[in-house]
Amino acid sequence: MKRFLSVACAAVLLLPALSMFGGCGAKSADVVLRVYNWEEYIDEGGKGAFLYDELHLTEENENGEKVPVESDIVDGDYLDWYRQTMGVELDREGPAILDDFCLWYEKTYGETIRVEYSTFGTNEDMYNEIVLGNEYDLLCPSDYMIMKLAAEGRLEKFDESFFDPTDPLNYYVLNVSPFIAEKFETNAGLEIRTDLDGNEIYWKDYAAGYMWGTTGFVYNPEHVSAEQLEELGWEAFTYPAFKSRITAKDNVRDTYFAALGVTYQDRLRALDPGASDYIEELTRIFNATDNQTISEVEPTLMDIKRNIYSFETDTGKADMVNGKIWLNYAWSGDAVYALDLAESGEDEDGNETGSAKLNFYVPEAGSNLFFDGWVMPKGANKKAAQAFVNFLSMPQNAMRNSYYIGYTSVISGEESEMLAYADYLYGGEEETEENYYDLSYFFGTEAGIYAEEEQRLSRQLYAQFPTPDVIAHCAVMDYYDAEASVRINELWSRVKAETLDAWAIAVICVTFVVIVLFVLFVKFGNKIDFFRKKPKKGYSLVKQERLK
Amino acid sequence: MKIPRFSRKTLCIPYAVFLIFFVIVPMLVIVFYAFTDKSMHISFDNFIRFFSDPTKLSTIVYSLVIALITTVVCLLIAYPVAYILARSTLKKKYVILMLFVLPMWINFVLRVNAIRELFNLLSTLKGLEWLASANYFKTVFGMVYDFLPFMILPLYTTMLKIDRSLYEASADLGASGVTTFLRVTVPLSMPGIMSGITMVFLPSMTNYVVSDMLGNAKVTIIGKFIYEYFGSDWHMGSMVALVLLIVVFVSTWFSGGFKSEENVRGTNL
Asked: How many CA atoms lie within 13 A of B58 on its CB side?
């Protein structure tokens, strides 16, 4: 029995299992920086990383042989920059970005540093770790979690000097996209909350951006046409022809958001994008958690559950690539990954899949815009933490991270360096007016690239750098306050689990009680006089205990 | 210098420490969280919410049913295997036993993933398309596959211990093969059946990895609830864990209760 109890306890206590892997630097370093980031959310070097891939480019010559070619982007300038920044030559095996950070930090600040890097799987896991008192210097939560942590007074503000554009070491401020900076200054249209002392919270004070994106559908154009999806929008989730061919996310936030989209699609489409309060209205609809909304969304969620193939968090990509499902509700970075995977015709292990290529679509009625940003919990080593954020914000490093993980960096570059990166990856041959893909909103100046129609409308370029039109229809998620959180959790458990009718529960409970009584009777029945047979004539009833 | 006296009691210290820190304290923590609210005040709110929520009660029922079916299927498969292996005079029977137990040495997540892929493959065949959405079937299948060794091993070891002369005596007294099986083998293997049931029944109530991966996360068992609540509301999560603990306690006590009934063996013999 004890064993089962201990197993039960241990299972409960060890639920938010952590995966840890080392960072870099010597044991005896002067400074230690503890970074707590998402799984697979940083360039880890080696094969498949930006530098390795660019240094090992090949092309077929006229004899059909593969010959090495020079990269257009990791060129002589890049190698010079690398030598100057890290103080070493770039080796062809492709270093991990954490190792480079250690080199750079020592070169710049004259101190050795060690990075203790660990990862989490969900914002909630990370939050639990922080509440339990684990100490870190830098975390990477999503937008709503940044708000929650700030509102609970768990975060340090960034130093004022961090935002000083005259210091050449402040790479973040110098390189961040004005579009992102504006969102961080205004909390992207969310209601401004206050912290425990009543001060207004702005993301800008507490967070520096890292990656951003939207949510939408990865779809298989063999079975789903762009026109069809455009017409259906969010209703793809409940469309009977897609039964068991579409997936939703196995977490309440994203699926509830999607269900709001399905339920209120008509209302969302009727909104006037030109209206001054359009974004406020959109944000309000996508963040409604009142009882009435929940009761309206619940039947939609049930319909979604009936229609989808599965709730998933990471199996969707593989299921899309091997053609099992046709639509996968996905974050844009995951979408880029799935698109790349399908295009390469190989699965993660390099086996051929022979799959068709995939496309991406963001519902026009409105979708989710999200940000992941760096924040410093109370007691963090601010100097090292801010140096780390600055290091990652160098455009050359932002490219590496963005390439490795598939999400879009918040960095645009002082000289719009990231535009060259986008052009390099997605740019097309023809420079016609038609092919122009306008990205001015992100770079803050007249900027854009020439890309083929496919890229512009439904592929990696569209997923990584959404069109201004998509951005104009996106709302950011707020965090649920305590009461809303209870309501939403209850809703989610009703959706995920099966609920029996009241009479069925009553019958089962009664049966259960009867079984318990029966067992008690079998076990102790002969010890209770009441149940014992009357003694035969001439015998007398003897208490059980006296016999022993 | 006084040398500390080493007695038999000293040997208990590691276990006592273990017991306190890994059994008693966590239990108290769970009970504490279950009966407090967010501001750490004593509250029966979670208790009331749990038992007035048909979804949670239904999930317990579903978990019990899934666990029950898993256990029965495991027993039906494992019993003949253990019986044949224990009674056979095959030279290679250890190899066969090994083959049944071998999957236990391979990582559990890997095995469940393999089954998932297998089902994916099967569901592309004509006539087997229903497999893709047969979430409950796949969940139970995965659990049976996963927990079968835990049923075979205790059965095999108990049956191995049954004295062969008992079978001979039974035959001498004119009992048929069936009678011998029902009145000698089954009662004598009862301890094995009971420990097999506990080893299979309890984990299959909480093993949500199987239900998530094979049931497309559309099958929810009570373990998943605990996991999800610990993402946002530790108090409710603790309450669910506590209720599960009680269900587990009752079911263990049931099986243990039968086992300690000493005259089960005697009366039936």
From this structure: 17
How confident is the model over A415-464, as pLDDT tens digits? 889 999 999 999 888 888 888 999 999 999 999 999 988 888 888 999 99
Taking CA atoms, A7 is separated from A14, A42, A529, B248, in Å, by 10, 35, 40, 12
- Structural domains counted in chain B: 1
Judged on CB neighbours under 10 Å (0-12, 13-18, 19+), A340 is middle
Residue B200 identity (one-letter amino acid) = V
Residue B242: CATH number of its domain: 1.10.3720.10
Give the domain range for residue B77: 55-265
Across the range B210-219, mean pLDDT stands at 90
Residue B232: how many CB atoms within 10 A of its CB? 19
First to last CA, chain A: 28
Beta carbons of B22 and A12 less than 8 Å apart: no
From chain A, the residues in CB contact with B202 under 8 A are 4
Q: Rounded CA gap, A420 and A402, in Å?
A: 14
Contact A9 B30 (CB under 8 A): yes
How many CB atoms sit inside 10 A of residue A337's CB?
Answer: 22
Q: How far apart are CA B209 and CA B224, in angstroms?
A: 8
Give residue-wise pLDDT tens across range A494-526.
999 888 888 888 888 888 788 878 877 776 766
Q: Measured between alpha carbons, how far is residue B121 from residues A72, A314, B115, B118, B136 in Å?
A: 43, 19, 10, 5, 18
Q: Are A399 and A418 in contact (CB under 8 A)?
A: yes
Other beta carbons less than 10 A from residue B56's beta carbon: 23
Measured between beta carbons, the chain B residues lying within 8 angstroms of A500 are 54, 57-58, 61
For the whole model, what pTM was predicted? 0.85
Classify residue B13: in a domain, yes or no. no
How far is A499 from B59, CA to CA, in rounded Å? 7
Contacts of A486 in chain B (CB under 8 A): 233
Tell me, yes or no, whether B245 lies in a domain.
yes
For residues A353 and A345, the answer to whether their CB atoms sit within 8 Å is yes
Q: Which helix (H) or strand (E) holds B154?
A: helix B135-161
- Crossing angle of helices A482-496 and B222-232, rounded to 10°: 160
Structural domain contains residue B48 = no
Residue matched to tokens 């506990």: B198
Residue B88 forms part of a structural domain: yes
Confidence (pLDDT) at A481? 86
B residues 114-133 near A, CB within 8 Å? 120, 132-133
Using the predicted structure, report yes or no on whether residue B263 has a pLDDT greater than 50.
Answer: no
Q: Please state, in angstroms and rounded to a whole number, the distance separating the CA atoms of residues A333 and A251.
A: 17
Judge whether B123 and B129 are in contact, CB under 8 Å.
yes
Q: In angstroms, what CA-CA distances link A296 with A293, A461, A486, A487?
A: 5, 36, 17, 13
